[in-house]
Amino acid sequence: xxxxxxxxxxxxxxxxxxxxxxxxxxxxxxxxxxxxxxxxxxxxxxxxxxxxxxxxxxxxxxxxxxxxxxxxxxxxxxxxxxxxxxxxxxxxxxxxxxxxxxxxxxxxxxxxxxxxxxxxxxxxxxxxxxxxxxxxxxxxxxxxxxxxxxxxxxxxxxxxxxxxxxxxxxx
Length: 171
Known about the structure:
There is one protein chain. The protein has helices spanning 2-28, 35-46, 56-62, 83-92, 163-169, and strands at residues 63-72, 78-82, 99-110, 113-123, 133-143, 146-156. It is an alpha+beta fold. It has one domain: Nuclear Transport Factor 2, Chain: A (Roll). The longest helix has 27 residues, at 2-28. The relative contact order is 0.15. Mean pLDDT is 88; it is low at 5-20.
């Protein structure tokens, strides 16, 4: 009897998870159909006015379950954490106007793997340029008909490291 109950419970859980997955595919599926779409969606998710709610569900959909975020400081020291850990400061601090405007993108794809270099500018108003810039290195994989962001590494431009200026000069 206990085995039947366990099997029934596991089947019910699997059905619920499948239904939720299908719901998310219907809601955000177009975001992950191409590299262009997923990177555009990534910038859309992290950008917005203080009055707009964070898009945690959509952001989670774009990333693989084990996604890693790496922030490099000026000395190359890496702060490595999970996507969930990225959300903690967002939940604790008041939301402010924040926009990342992509300046240039470079994509390399081989089979089911892709590497995207993306220079961006941080703005508090989407229409006003800024001198706060950084460079993202985004790794993706293609599985089950869609793209996933597996990791991204970011470093801000500084007086010592003109990484965005150098990147914008590349072909």
